[in-house]
Amino acid sequence: MKTTILLVDDHPIFREGLRSLIDNCDTTVVVGEAGNGAEAVRLVGELKPDLVIMDLTMPIMNGIDATREITKNFPDTRVLALSMESDRFFVVEALKAGATGYLLKDTVFNELSEAISIVAGGDTYLPRKISTLLVKEFLQCVPEDMTLVYQNLTPRERQILQLIADGKCIKEIAHNLGVSNKTVENQRQHIMHKLNLFTVAELTKYAIRSGLSPLK
Does pTM surpass 0.70? Predict the structure, then answer.
């Protein structure tokens, strides 16, 4: 059974060329076209396509708002963003709106065909360029103090911090690590000094916030 596709782009000549390529595939067929987001939402309601290939910058209703409406009201229809926009704002907002794939229009058709198959199958598709962009965005948003646990503590100290956050007492930690109670106590004091913390409760909170221990 072929994957049914709705093409959404405000340039008819682009839609015409893309439709020709998609219809020539054995596994895909274009069932409709839209020139703006509002029209796309209406046609999804009428045609119930498996997949929408969505441009983002269009008149009347942009592709991000259209994606949000489609994924909210027609959850069985997947959205693959295909845009000229490589700015992180468009990528992040399209994914937040519910798109499960994002490709740039300078991609080759073989990659688009692969993305269609993956997204229509229920998985997410992001090319390396977009994945790299998102990773950089994530790293820029990580608070500086979230990385201090790895910069300031030794592997053994991180291990002890995790065990403390897991509720282990000094004796249990010493037994698990095969060291004396005094050694664990000294290392706990070093950890607290390095992190400028003063109680076990503060250590536990810090470990959870830093991802060393799950939230209880």
Answer: no
